[in-house]
From TrEMBL, chains A, B:
InterPro entries membership: DctP_fam, SBP_TakP-like, TAT_signal, TAT_signal_bac_arc, TRAP_DctP_sf
Name of a matching Pfam family: DctP
Protein name according to UniProt: DctP5: TRAP dicarboxylate transporter periplasmic binding protein
Organism whose genome encodes this protein: Desulfobacula toluolica (strain DSM 7467 / Tol2)
Gene Ontology terms: cellular component: cell envelope; tripartite ATP-independent periplasmic transporter complex
Keyword Zinc carried by entry: no
Main location: other
Recorded name of the encoding gene: dctP5
GO biological process: transmembrane transport
Amino acid sequence: MERRQFLQKAAIGTVAAVTAGGIVNAPAVHAQKKIKWKMVTTWPPKLPYLQDAAELLAKKVELMSGGLFKIKVFAGGELVPPLQTFDAVSKGTTVQAGSGVSYYQAGKAPAAQWFAAVPFGLNGAGMSAWYEFGGGLKLWEEMYAPFDVIPRPGGCTGPQMAGWFNKKIESVDDFKGLKMRIPGLGGKVMAKLGATVVLCPASEIFTNLERGVIDATEWIGPLHDKLMGFYKVAKYYYYPGWHEPGPFVEFVFNKTAYESLPLEYQAILDAACTQVNNWTTQGFNTGNGQALDELITQHKVTLMKLPDPVLADLKSHAKDAVFDIAAKDPMAKKVNESFERFKKIVGPWGEVSEKPYYNSLADKYKLKG
Amino acid sequence: MERRQFLQKAAIGTVAAVTAGGIVNAPAVHAQKKIKWKMVTTWPPKLPYLQDAAELLAKKVELMSGGLFKIKVFAGGELVPPLQTFDAVSKGTTVQAGSGVSYYQAGKAPAAQWFAAVPFGLNGAGMSAWYEFGGGLKLWEEMYAPFDVIPRPGGCTGPQMAGWFNKKIESVDDFKGLKMRIPGLGGKVMAKLGATVVLCPASEIFTNLERGVIDATEWIGPLHDKLMGFYKVAKYYYYPGWHEPGPFVEFVFNKTAYESLPLEYQAILDAACTQVNNWTTQGFNTGNGQALDELITQHKVTLMKLPDPVLADLKSHAKDAVFDIAAKDPMAKKVNESFERFKKIVGPWGEVSEKPYYNSLADKYKLKG
């Protein structure tokens, strides 16, 4: 406050020379803090549109602050183990920022699931609108406040793929006995349908699939799935990703550290998050499009759509799984109510706007798979 | 450059006290320029998510710059007539920034159409990805450079509606002799189908429709159409908006003024544009959803879908209209090639990702119209 009053007085006392371009040349003495933060992530180094997104965030913040606010970024495992990212940020002793996915925190806060992905929930556009205009971001902040953490949407992968399989899925009976790597609520639904849900680190999925330790896996989408090489060891690539129709990653900041920033830097950090959110979302859209084509034309992947009756069964079970969690946790209940309310606002509009776009306005390309 | 070197030296000479939170408390003396800009828009005062978006941009920039970079915003007609916004920014003598739509510049740069909306072109998600990863923004900058203008995407209205009609559209023959207010390429297509295309300012559309000067009109989408009161004088509200599947508004800056900003302020201005772009896009998605429900339930509007054969005919004519423009102007040709190339990247991915989402994942709400 005192600094601001000083600045105002200084500004009043300045004799300004206004040019035609509207620039007042007299420099104001703007005493700004130098800040150095550390950011850790859950991502492997160089992971496209995820690890490099964290690095882009740091670059944007440094640029906007004229080099005064610097964030040093560490990939998963470089400073803390990947899945301890949130805890490190929550603690805030050496680390002030992180990048990951909110459903990693489902164990300590069941409501966390809703801010990343809900099976048959909102897609990316719906999630974005819910955060901003449906109270989603406020609820997300409320949920993380006890952990001394502030969240920001980090970008959307777009609808994911249903996964890689070595046998055709013709009814939900085909899931019985299937050993599949699928985390989160999607895994709960698959378990109810008789699948054996296997969880393993990203680095082990390929080998497990190759050796038959698992029969099937989901991962992200064409771009990242191609990098994992799953097409070498699985026959069928199924869509749509019913379990994650528009998952968002997150940036998290230590709340005490965030709130002790000058207001300018809080605003700069928020703006950089939105820039990176957009960059990541568009990067996934473009990269998935390019990789899908490569998978089909170069790697001869067989693209398959889950039959409608299978999707209907999955939807019914997903509804139960979501209901179960919301029934047990007051915060999850509150978040789910907000989420469902918002679906009723954007849902019918989607039927009138984007649905006909995808069905009759968008150019139809004959899928090669 | 000199200022930066000075800052670096100053930083090196500072004895810093690092706290646990990572904050270096010793203030750096950061001599920043005070900037005052004027921004004019093509929008009426208080127009939701458009005029207030320009005001939000100014607020964000001021906040991030610690009050040093101020933009005073004027609605259409307050400082210059609405459709002279671009020219005022291009001139740059009293005005440095503007907000409008690029197709208003189609008369002086035919390629401008592509950066706003192309009939049966990309939707909002596709446009965003094209700007960032398909070279779209670079081409947009190249197109405006001769006018000394720099563009930034300002936000997407979502797919528009086809418009308000007083008779049912059962085939393209129903367009013959129809007097319709529809600008741009959409109007060219309608004219080819025998409609009489009428152009009139926004303020006169309602009265013209009421008095039968026009038989039909398109405008934006449920939110803004509701505010215009068209439901009082037209029977049928048709979708989808084939002519504008994901139109973007634009921010424009005088290039000389932009480039004379300190790099921090250029970065801050860019980041604020992205924030407002997102805010506007999500605001339209939410506001259109709410207004659609009001129109149907409170104002008893009859919602109608253009029959598929009508859409197919419109698509064929739209292709010709787009081809005609691209054939006559080298820049339009170059932009169209980039646009079409990008459609082939995101198109097939949309078929696999968002199309099944809208068709089977989104909850089906029985449309009340």
